[in-house]
Write a structure and sequence with these properties.
single chain, 100 residues, mainly beta
Length: 100
């Protein structure tokens, strides 16, 4: 099955089938978008078993495409670990390479 993924300002990524463009999954941890989080970019793993997303909260998430569940979440990237701050840089782009 061929898939298409879209990212949105509603705090979600959506996965669609390309044969009929039916929605397969809505991937989100915040269904009401109370955090006002943008999902900026995404990339499929080589086997299309997972989707990686990056968002304005500075986190990278790995989603299981077999059931639409969150498999892993990485903490926000801090530019300078020596400075104690809650500031982080949101991710706006993702490049993913999975060597064979």
């Amino acid at each position: 099955m061929k898939l298409l993924a879209t990212c949105s300002a509603d705090g979600s990524a959506k996965v669609w089938t390309t044969t009929d463009f039916n929605l397969l999954f809505t991937l989100t941890e915040d269904p009401l978008n109370l955090l006002r989080n943008w999902y900026w970019d995404c990339a499929f793993t080589r086997d299309s078993a997972h989707l990686l997303t990056v968002s304005s909260d500075g986190r990278i998430r790995c989603w299981e495409l077999g059931n639409g569940s969150l498999k892993q979440k990485w903490p926000p990237f801090e530019e300078d670990k020596h400075v104690q701050t809650n500031a982080y840089k949101p991710f706006t782009c993702l490049a993913f390479f999975e060597p064979s």
